[in-house]
Amino acid sequence: MMAAPHRQDAAQPMIVDGAPAAAQEVTVGQRNKQFTRDQMTLKAGDRIKFVNDDAVAHNIFVTGPGDKTRNSGVQEPGESATLAFDAPGTYGVECGIHPEMRMTVEVK
């Protein structure tokens, strides 16, 4: 019988230089038609969980390096959306419904 090929379990973090390279998740709230942070710095691969703690719907719209854009879709009050920031660069984040809601994310 042949042994099955070894594969890395998807639940295990990748090992880099002897240490786990686990992505971090940071929570940013949306209250009173504002993000709870104006800016933040992440490492490539980290995620932001946007939590709608407001009484109105929101929509996360992200513009990033190379003119890449992402849209979370509508988040009703109490809902959340998690977006990964995989590539280094500066990202603009705004609410597609309330464009005065803005923050900047720097990914290293």
Features:
single chain; 108 residues; mainly beta; Immunoglobulin-like; five-stranded mixed β-sheet; four-stranded mixed β-sheet; 11 strands
SSE blueprint:
Layout: E1 15-16, E2 19-20, E3 25-31, E4 34-35, E5 39-42, E6 46-52, E7 58-64, E8 68-75, E9 80-85, E10 89-95, E11 102-107
Parallel strand pairs: 3-6, 5-11
Antiparallel strand pairs: 1-2, 3-4, 6-9, 7-8, 7-10, 10-11
Description:
Mean pLDDT is 85; it is low at 1-16. This protein has strands at residues 15-16, 19-20, 25-31, 34-35, 39-42, 46-52, 58-64, 68-75, 80-85, 89-95, 102-107. The chain has one domain (23-107): Immunoglobulin-like. Strand 10 (89-95) and strand 11 (102-107) form a beta hairpin. Helices cover 0% and strands 54% of the residues. By secondary structure, it is mainly β. The strands form three sheets. It has a five-stranded mixed beta sheet, with no helix packed on it. A four-stranded mixed beta sheet has the order 4-3-6-9, with no helix packed on it. 16% of the residues are buried.
Count all strands and give the number: 11
CATH architecture: Sandwich
| Residue windows where pLDDT falls under 50 for at least 5 positions | 1-16
Q: Please tell me what the overall shape is.
A: globular
Work out the radius of gyration: 17 Å
Q: What oligomeric arrangement do these chains adopt?
A: single chain
The first-to-last residue Cα distance is: 47 Å
The structural domain count equals 1
In spatial order, strands of the major sheet run: 5-11-10-7-8
| H/I helix tally | 0
H-E order: EEEEEEEEEEE
